[in-house]
Amino acid sequence: MKAAAFSYVRPSTLAEACAILRADEDARLIAGGQTLAPMMAMRLARPSQLVDIARLPELAGVADAGDALVFGAAVRQAEAERSPLVAARLPLLAKALPWVGHQPTRSRGTIGGSVANADPAAEIPLVLATLGGAVDFMTCDGPGHIAAQDFFAGPMMTALPADAVLTAVRFPVWSTPVGVGFHEISARRSDFAYVSAAAQASFDEDGVCIACTLGLGGAAAVPTRLESVALKLAGRRMTDAEIAEALEEAVAALEIMTDSYASPEYRRRVAKELGARALRDARDSAPGSRP
Amino acid sequence: MSAPVTVELNVNGATRTADVEPRTTLLDCLRDEMKLTGAHAGCEHGVCGACTILLDGEPARACLMFAVQADGYRITTVEGLAPAPGELGIVQDAFCETHGMQCGYCTPAMVLTAHALLARNASPTREEIVEAISGNICRCTGYGQIIEAIEVAARRLAVSNAGVEGAP
Ligand code: FES
Ligand code: FES
């Protein structure tokens, strides 16, 4: 359980990091390392060099862009978890963060690393997909931008160019007050989720849903936003019956993942139930809702 | 094998150097180079928590970091918690008294985790204690006495911080 030999570099600028990636296709970025380090210990990953980007100033800090919070890719999960800005502006992410790994892995793990890793069961990618966010990246050719729905390509696969550094993650902030819900199920607390569900909703003063969104993690190969649920529930009061009906069809249409832990039937059943709970929580915690 | 590099780490308040390969984990560096064997090697891939250390006061897994990444942080191992050689800190004392250990393999990590929790939250609920140690596996105790140890330590710390005379 020891990593194979590699060399270690800590570039002082983003441009330098991009140049290293372009020159050596076996080089890998490391920031928090909470997934890469175990992969290396098990020799499932054998990078020629580790490019440590954790301290790059270009990747630090959380900025409020009005309609989004923009996280430098190297912002630690623990830092986001403690941030009053995140709690106030992105309650869905704040609610999901305590479910990410364990406290000692969140103290090292980064927001950008989790997104780039694209584990279908991971919470941060789920929140990004649910809110329809985006990522920024940089290569030697210049900056780029990919919307969440085009970013996650499959389990542990993304549309990020091979020699790109993911630089920032953008989580949209709604202009109206929101309620949020988050649920997940796993064998043990904080283990990989079989299914997780994230929801956000907003209501007008008559108790009618202006907008809502629901995303499921662990169920499909990528974190998936259920567009049909959002369309069905907008303009309604979001009663329990309306929620159940919207989910019935949407989950039936999903291509469910299967592995040795949970059967597709189980995942589908749980997806429906957790999706409904997340939506009900979002509704019940939103100002103005009157189902 | 790749060429060793010199790392300079701040461990338990002192600056220590070691020549290690880049692939040497912080855990192996602490144990093998610095002879700080309080951080235990369990799974060595991030699932058991036996290797827990504090990085700038926050629990982290020493097996999931390479020593070359660790400069510039305040690193605390269990050896750094005792007030003086041969003495025990309040948290350690509480673990002894409540039998918060059996084989002791998980204990340094549990003690450090408890220490960090109590530094952040002086009177944690049982829920919060359970949550804090949820990343640390104990194969012996069933956790009950570990939780009790942390509750006892919290009460003692509250009393000692209040400076009450004749505190237990
Ligand atoms: S030895 Fe580090 S988590 Fe198990
Ligand atoms: S006391 Fe033996 S593992 Fe915890």
Characteristic terms for this protein:
heterodimer; A: 291 residues; alpha+beta; Uridine Diphospho-n-acetylenolpyruvylglucosamine Reductase, domain 2; Uridine Diphospho-n-acetylenolpyruvylglucosamine Reductase, domain 3; Enolase-like, domain 1; 3 domains; five-stranded antiparallel sheet; four-stranded antiparallel sheet; 12 helices; globular; B: 168 residues; Ubiquitin-like (UB roll); DNA polymerase, domain 1; five-stranded mixed sheet; 5 helices; 33% helix; 15% strand; binds FE2/S2 (inorganic) cluster
Walk me through what this model shows.
In chain A, a hairpin with a 3-residue loop joins strand 4 (62-64) and strand 5. The termini of chain A are far apart. In chain A, 34% of the residues lie in helices and 24% in strands. In chain A, the strands form four sheets. A five-stranded antiparallel β-sheet of chain A has the order 4-5-10-6-7. Chain A has helices at residues 14-23, 36-41, 77-82, 84-89, 91-96, 103-106, 111-117, 123-131, 148-151, 227-233, 240-252, 264-285; strands at residues 7-9, 27-30, 49-52, 62-64, 68-72, 134-139, 142-147, 152-154, 157-158, 165-172, 179-185, 195-203, 209-217, 224-225. Chain A is α+β, with helices and mostly antiparallel strands and 291 residues long. Chain A has three domains: 7-52, Uridine Diphospho-n-acetylenolpyruvylglucosamine Reductase, domain 2, CATH 3.30.43; 57-172, Uridine Diphospho-n-acetylenolpyruvylglucosamine Reductase, domain 3 (2-Layer Sandwich), CATH 3.30.465; 179-285, 2-Layer Sandwich (Enolase-like, domain 1). In chain A, helix 10 (227-233) runs antiparallel to helix 11 and helix 11 (240-252) packs antiparallel against helix 12. Chain B has 168 residues and is an alpha+beta fold. Chain B folds into two domains: 5-80, Ubiquitin-like (UB roll), CATH 3.10.20; 90-160, [2Fe-2S]-binding domain (DNA polymerase, domain 1, Orthogonal Bundle), CATH 1.10.150. Chain B has a five-stranded mixed β-sheet with strand order 2-1-5-3-4, sandwiched between helices. In chain B, helix 2 packs across helix 5 (144-162) and helix 3 packs across helix 5. The interface between A and B is medium-sized, with 29 and 31 residues. The structure holds FE2/S2 (inorganic) cluster (FES) (2 copies). One FE2/S2 (inorganic) cluster (FES) binds at residues 41-44, 46-51, 61, 63 of chain B.
